[in-house]
Amino acid sequence: MEETINIVLIIIGGLVFFLGIISEVIKKLSLSEPVVALVLGILLSPAGLGIFDINVWSHELLEETARLAAAVGVMGVALRVPSFYTRGHWRSVAVMLGIAMPFRWLASSLLVYWFTDFGFIVALLIGAIITPTDPILTLSVVSGKLAEKSLPSRLRNLLLTESGSNEGLAYLFVIFPILLMNLRPAEALNFWLVHIFFLEAGLSIILGAAAGYVSGRMLKSAERKGTIDISSYYAYCLALTLLVLGGVKLAGGDGILAVFVAGTIFSMVSTEEERHEEEHVVEGVDRFFMIPIFTLLGLVLPWQEWAKLGWEGPVLAFLVLLLHRLPVLLFIKSHVPDIRSNLEMLFLGWFGPVGIGAFYYSQVSMRQTGIMEIWPVVSLIVCVSTVLHGITATPFIKYYGKHTAGESKQDSDLSGYGQDKSKKSEA
To answer: Which of the pair, 243 or 168, is modelled with greater confidence?
Structure first.
């Protein structure tokens, strides 16, 4: 066991080190770091070189590892999105969460129901698991020099904000089918509304907001008094993530949702200079967690169970990625101010990756329901999403940049900031 742990440390440290050095080269090759990490995990698994025994990874360990990675991911997103965007572009975010997200749940559930032998309630559960847009994969798509140069910041911020917020909100969708398996429909709906929606989600938002505000004020006070140095930012941001994730969970709330709320409020309370430092700190921490979790995913893929799915498995995965966002965005694009062309609608419609959030919620669902057949379907969709979105991001971004080169991208990006500033001055 000790030898295995040391090998894991060497591989993770070496991979993070190597990918950090060639990160921009990887993007130019139309790849992404999650794809490289996933491939490495497959090579090290029993299906590859057989270096690691997957039996050492229990579902409880997988669940907690994925929960930590998801929390770090949503914190990274919350600190990366400028505070003026959150305040000035709330309508676009509200439509994406209030209309597009429930549609993704329904569309994904129907596809699972049609292509598998699962009953409708189990299909609803799997649909809920794969509903959230993954913040870690999203960051790999919209970050980097090419994306920042070619894509308007409003698109990048919309996708980041959506991915961060729905990673936590997905718990509301996941728990409802689980309740239907154990209670009568009326009882399940009543319990969901009172205990899950109002109490758990409400508690998570309140505690997360309080933690973000207090920690932000403490940081500003420490800077004024000169009691904190720049190196402490690393520990400060990561500590806030762990504190909220564990504390809110112990209090009976949704830790991942609370982490995103805390990061958002923390970003609002901090000054722009502080936020710039924080986002780079968490981006580095996020990379350190992202690479191991996708390597771990490659290690535990259920190849034999995939084979039993037959041709329906890959077809289901592709159709989920193609149809769970594009149709609804086609109909609601006029109600999303940040979508200003069909090309932008296509970008947001395709790049809704399914990743670590689905990994985490699948482990939660299997633990609570005992339905282990959930994992092969979910893991296949996650892997197909990781690969397809990883290899299509760079070509699509280049295509977008080429066909919008003549537009005044900077003016459109700063319009939200200017309006926000003017509103603040009038107030």
So the answer is: 243
CATH of the domain at 214: 1.20.1530.20
Chain-centroid distance, C-alpha 314: 22
State both tokens at 267. 């970003």
Q: Do 147 and 392 touch, CB atoms closer than 8 A?
A: no
Residue 426 within a domain: no
The Cα-based distances of 301 to 62, 138, 306 in angstroms read 12, 22, 9
Distance, CA of 376 to CA of 366 (rounded, Å): 11
Q: Return the pLDDT at 30.
A: 65
- What are the strands, taking DSSP E only, across 217-368? none
Termini Cα distance of the chain: 62
Q: How far apart are CA 381 and CA 371, in angstroms?
A: 17
Place of tokens 């919209």: 142
pLDDT digits (tens, 9 = 90+) for 168-179: 899 999 999 999
Place of tokens 């999403």: 385
Domain range spanning residue 243?
24-404
Q: Stretch 121-140: mean pLDDT, rounded?
A: 93
Overall domain count for the chain = 1
Mean pLDDT of the chain, nearest integer: 84
The closest alpha carbon to 259, from 357, 375, 354, belongs to: 357
Q: Is residue 337 part of a domain?
A: yes
Are 374 and 365 contacting, i.e. CB atoms less than 8 angstroms apart? yes
Number of Cβ within a 10 Å radius of residue 195: 14
Q: CB–CB of 295/12 below 8 Å?
A: yes
Q: What is the dihedral of CA 340, 345, 351, 357, to 10 degrees?
A: 90
Helices (H), 143-271: 145-150, 153-182, 185-191, 202-225, 232-250, 255-269
Report the distance separating Cα 180 and Cα 266, nearest Å.
Answer: 37
Q: Residue 315 phi/psi, 5° resolution?
A: -65, -45
Tell me if 318 is assigned to some domain: yes
* Torsion (CA) 129, 132, 137, 140 in degrees, nearest 10: 180
Tell me how far apart the alpha carbons of residues 234 and 283 are, in angstroms, rounded to a whole number: 10
CA distances from 341 to 20, 98, 149, 399, 404 (A): 34, 21, 18, 14, 10
> b/e per residue, 257-269, with b = 16+ CB within 10 A?
bbbbbbbbbbbbb
C-beta neighbour count of 49 within 10 angstroms: 10
In a domain? residue 19: no
Phi and psi at residue 85, in whole multiples of 5°? -70, -45
Q: What is the distance between the alpha carbons of residues 22 and 16, in angstroms, rounded to a whole number?
A: 10
